């Protein structure tokens, strides 16, 4: 997931440069971000099903090859139309990254360590997003905004080579793993082989599924602000220099690594003591409520550092589903409602500049 977020946040980190090069306002730039998100949502379930059929290893290699290609092609776009098309195809290829990653966890982690496995996944997300500004901003400053997309594309190809040579779907297929460890994992993991096909009719009748989908949909308004809009907001709304934005963004996600690991440890501990239902409800509800409050406070504070840091460390809801990414297209409209932005970033600027 580190590689995933290196390329995903690349466009936001050079967003101001792209807007200037193509003469885009925030609404037009939002269409480019929304094209990726819409494609990601539409192809998330099909990509997850494909992973179950051909295996997570083959599916992840296909995903990274695809997104590496379209990451590089983003650097060749010539205007809004080609940018929107490229980002849509990018999202179509990257869809399935999270389902297949969590599928890997179900094969490789015992049940008692599920939360910690997922926490490592999200620590990778924060690590990628935290490392990206330190790579992308210097490259963009030295060689222009197109170069980072080419470099990140090459990094993805390197990952594919490593995955192809080293990774396997199951512990039994992996070299240099002891028989004791293999037996421990395979006898206690959540992964099971289903002899009968999945019945979607039954799934849509489960209230818990709908609760997770709605919760995740809501969490994306917070997450996607940080991933897609925060660099632009800091530069245009808070008047940060590009260098200040670089370190602020990197620091925020670096703190998020610690939060993800702590949340995973706490989750497994609470499951043992309080049960699965209590743990999932408590962590998810607490995270969404606190993030909502902190976002409200951030619109009325002169110092953005404490608010962004606190918000970034909150354990976001971790559910992944078909509605992933539908909200980012509308993030600018939400911020239109912040009538008193700090440093005089007017509402109509968020709409039209």
Individual helix count: 17
CATH architecture: Up-down Bundle
CATH superfamily: MFS general substrate transporter like domains
State the major sheet. none
Would you state the CATH class?
Mainly Alpha
Global shape: globular
Low-confidence stretches: 314-353
| Count of domain modules | 1
Structural class: mainly alpha
- Into which percent range does the helicity of residues fall? over 70%
CATH topology: Growth Hormone, Chain: A
Mean pLDDT: 79
Order of helices and strands: HHHHHHHHHHHHHHHHH
Query: What share of the residues does DSSP label as strand, in percent?
Result: under 5%
Number of strands: 0
Structural account:
By secondary structure, the protein is mostly helical. The protein has a single domain, classed as MFS general substrate transporter like domains (Growth Hormone, Chain: A). Helix 4 runs parallel beside helix 6. The chain is globular.
List keywords for this structure.
mainly alpha, single chain, Growth Hormone, Chain: A, 353 residues, disordered C terminus, 0% strand
Which SSEs are present, and which pair or pack?
Elements: H1 2-8, H2 10-13, H3 15-22, H4 26-54, H5 56-74, H6 80-94, H7 97-108, H8 114-143, H9 147-166, H10 179-188, H11 200-203, H12 207-237, H13 242-274, H14 276-298, H15 305-313, H16 331-335, H17 347-352
């Amino acid at each position: 997931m580190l590689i995933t977020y290196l390329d995903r946040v690349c466009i936001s980190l050079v967003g101001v440069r792209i807007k200037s090069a193509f003469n885009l306002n925030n609404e037009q730039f939002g269409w480019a971000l929304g094209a990726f998100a819409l494609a990601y949502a539409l192809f998330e379930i099909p990509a997850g099903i494909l992973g179950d059929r051909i295996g997570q290893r083959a599916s992840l290699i296909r995903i990274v090859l695809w997104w590496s290609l379209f990451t590089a092609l983003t650097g060749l776009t010539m205007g809004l139309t080609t940018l929107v098309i490229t980002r849509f195809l990018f999202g179509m290829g990257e869809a399935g990254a999270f389902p297949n990653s969590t599928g890997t966890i179900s094969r490789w982690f015992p049940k008692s360590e599920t939360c910690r496995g997922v926490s490592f996944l999200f620590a990778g997300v924060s690590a990628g997003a935290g490392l990206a500004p330190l790579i992308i901003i210097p490259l963009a400053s030295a060689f222009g905004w197109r170069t980072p997309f080419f470099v990140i594309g090459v990094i993805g190809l390197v990952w594919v080579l490593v995955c192809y040579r080293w990774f396997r779907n199951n512990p039994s297929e992996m070299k240099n793993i002891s028989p004791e460890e293999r037996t421990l994992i395979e006898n206690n993991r959540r992964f099971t082989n289903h002899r009968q096909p999945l019945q979607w009719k039954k799934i849509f009748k489960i209230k818990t599924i709908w609760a997770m989908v709605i919760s995740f949909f809501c969490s994306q308004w917070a997450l996607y602000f940080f991933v897609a809009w925060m660099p632009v907001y800091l530069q245009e709304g808070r008047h940060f220099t590009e260098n200040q934005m670089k370190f602020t963004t990197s620091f925020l996600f670096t703190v998020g690594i610690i939060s993800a690991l702590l949340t995973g440890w706490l989750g497994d501990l609470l499951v043992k003591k309080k049960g699965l239902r209590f743990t999932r409800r408590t962590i998810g509800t607490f995270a969404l409520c606190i993030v909502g409050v902190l976002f409200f406070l951030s619109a009325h504070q002169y110092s953005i550092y404490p608010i962004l840091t606190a918000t970034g460390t909150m354990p976001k809801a971790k559910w992944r589903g078909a509605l992933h990414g539908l909200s980012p297209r509308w993030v600018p409209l939400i911020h239109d409602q912040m009538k008193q932005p700090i440093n005089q970033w007017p509402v109509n600027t968020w709409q039209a500049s």
